[in-house]
Amino acid sequence: MTDLIGELRARRLVRELDAVRGPRAGRPTRPIDLDGDPWCVLGAHVDLLEVQVLCTTVGGREIFRERIPVPLLHTGAEAGYALLRSVLCSQLGRIPEDLTLVAVQLGLPGYVAADRGIVSSSSFLGWDGMPLETLVYDTLYSAGFENVTVGIGQDSHLAALHAVREELRLPLPRLAVYVGGLREVGGAVVLDGEIFQGADGGAGDFGHAHVDPEGPLCSCGRHGCLNSLIGPTYLLVQGGLADQSGAEQLVVEDPYQAVRRLADAGEAGDRQVLAVLARAGTALGRALDDVIGALNPDVVALGGYLAVLQPFLLDGLQDQISRRLRVEAFAGTALVTLARTEPRVSLGAALAARDACLSDPLNLTHVV
Prior knowledge:
single chain, 14 strands, 368 residues, five-stranded mixed β-sheet, disordered N terminus, Nucleotidyltransferase, domain 5, alpha/beta, globular
């Protein structure tokens, strides 16, 4: 053990902190703190038209970040992974030679069976059934990277992880609910600072909460899901800001501009848009009322496009949940809005990769 500590100190893998004197006689103890600089992780947001990559040390120091345009929309598994593989290889080549890559985490739109690393379904990408974790392992091995932990996650889950752990101006809540997204409603449940996956990775699917059986058709085939009532495409069309095809194209190609168009119209006092957003706030409130009743969370956090539109949604939302929050058992639930952070998914991916390293510390050791 003494030899191991000696080697770690020589390689700056641990750093000594100030000595701590206890009440007993003898030499004061000297705690050590893990220095994550010799190892690095790669987090990536695999989006429809680009991949956002973030490389940090295990200690959290940023090494590099990049946004790489790549058309992944409806590519299908084989063609899509060929494009993604090229991106991964180019980014692996940027890792400094004095750092050891120990974990890679990808986040993408769709449902992911995280325990098996399989994309169970992704309507935007068309990667249904793709064994993505295995493919990434193969890519790493062929590029000369061994003993690297790979994780695959849902983009909204990773966004929630970063939002709850890094952005909330509160002590870490025991149970938090995140609702956000860019092109549609995504969500997650964060329990003790970790994503609650559910039985097969689908927990937190609030976008398909069944709010109104008589509502518009949802992409999932049902009527009146929350997504069908408050998704950006629906709001643009109902607000008279675009026709169906134009709204769909704008939301896919530039979701930030799509939401900005809605917010600008609301701020300008456009009555049609304000009425549509008010109804959206009511629909969101109905869904969250059920979520609060079922989960009794400490915090409900709004992010993504919902945070941008929050001023126009809030009255209807609060009207729907106010009765619930007057009950003592639910009165402690806080509703918070998070500032929009564009790379939230890649930040969450890097955070999850760092977590994976620390949950398997033997991967951070060296043979003495």
